[in-house]
Amino acid sequence: MTAYLASLMVFAGINALLALGLNIVWGLGGMINLGLAGFFALGAYASALFSLRLGWPMPLAGLAAIGIAATLGTVLAGVTARLKGDYLALVTLGFAQVIQLVAANERWLTNGTDGISGVPGPWRSVLSPTQFDLLCMALCWGLVTVCWAALARLASSPFARVLRAVREDEMVAAVAGKRVLWFKIRAFALGAGVSGLAGSVYVHFNGYIAPDSLDVLLTLNVVLALTLGGTGRMAGAVVGALLLEALTEGTRFMGGVVPALSPVQVASLREAVIGIVLILVLRLRPQGVLPETPRAMSLEPEG
Amino acid sequence: MEGAVLAVPAIGFNAVYAVLRFANFAVASIATVGAYAGWMANTALGWPVAPSLLVAFLVAGVVGVLADEAALRPLRPSGALTTAIASVALAIVLENALRFLFGNDPRGFDLPVYRDWRGFGLHVGPQQVRDAGAAVVAMAALFGFLAFTRAGKTMRAVADNPMLASLKGIDAVRIGRIASFTGLGLVGFGGMLIALDTQVDPLTGFRVLLSIFAAAVVGGLGSIPGAVMGAFLIGIGEEVSLLVFPATYRGAVGFLAILLMLSFRPAGLLGQRVS
Question: Has residue A251 been placed in a domain?
Answer without folding.
Answer: no
